[in-house]
Amino acid sequence: MNNIFPRRYFYPSVNTYTEIVAYQPTPVSEDIAKRILCLPLYWKLGINEIYKIISLVGNLIQR
Fold this sequence. Notes:
The protein is mainly alpha-helical. It has helices at about 25-35, 45-60, and strands at about 5-10, 35-40. Strands 1-2 form a two-stranded antiparallel sheet.
């Protein structure tokens, strides 16, 4: 809608990749992985885009 493409960051929690290592419970990591969002971040991200993202996120929080 606003041409901003957030994504989930390290989801699921890396400790759940049982193909790599045996599962170890890490409740904090697992909880954060369910709730965290990675906003756009790249080397050509301009200040105007940064302010647009800030404004849009701020509007969502105020709802």
